[in-house]
């Protein structure tokens, strides 16, 4: 089994207005079956402790 964790910056707008990006955490679990990796589970959640600044 393989576990992947990632941080993603997303932009979301219902009305087309420009909004700042927000950070999402994603965890994926994969398993190799018959020689191919299959996704068993995906979980995404909003990071609540992020200050909205992007380090450059």
Layout of helices and strands, plus pairs?
Elements: E1 2-10, E2 22-33, E3 36-46
Antiparallel strand pairs: 1-2, 2-3
Concise overview:
This protein is mainly β and 56 residues long. Helix content is 0%, strand content 57%.
Characteristic key phrases:
56 residues, mainly beta, three-stranded antiparallel β-sheet
Word description of this protein:
Strand 2 and strand 3 form a beta hairpin. The model has no long low-confidence stretch (mean pLDDT about 80). This protein has about 55 residues and is mostly beta strands. The chain starts with a strand and ends in a 10-residue tail after the last strand. It has a domain at about 1-10 and about 25-50. Helices cover about 0% and strands about 55% of the residues. A three-stranded antiparallel beta sheet has the order 1-2-3, with no helix packed on it.
Please report the number of helical segments.
0
State the low-pLDDT regions, or none: none
Q: Total number of β-strand segments?
A: 3
- Distance, first to last CA: 34 Å
Strand order of the largest sheet: 1-2-3
Query: Overall mean pLDDT score?
Result: 81
Q: Note the overall shape.
A: elongated
Structural class: mainly beta
User: How big a fraction of the residues is strand?
Assistant: over 45%
Radius of gyration: 15 Å
Could you state the order of secondary-structure elements as H and E? EEE
**Helicity range:** under 10%
Described by strand count, sense and barrel closure, the largest sheet is: 3 strands, antiparallel
């Amino acid at each position: 089994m393989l576990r992947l964790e990632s941080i993603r910056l997303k932009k979301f707008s219902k009305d087309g207005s420009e909004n700042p990006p927000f950070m999402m955490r994603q965890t994926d679990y994969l398993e190799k079956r018959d020689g191919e990796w299959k996704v068993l589970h995906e979980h995404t959640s909003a990071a609540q402790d992020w200050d909205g600044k992007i380090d450059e």
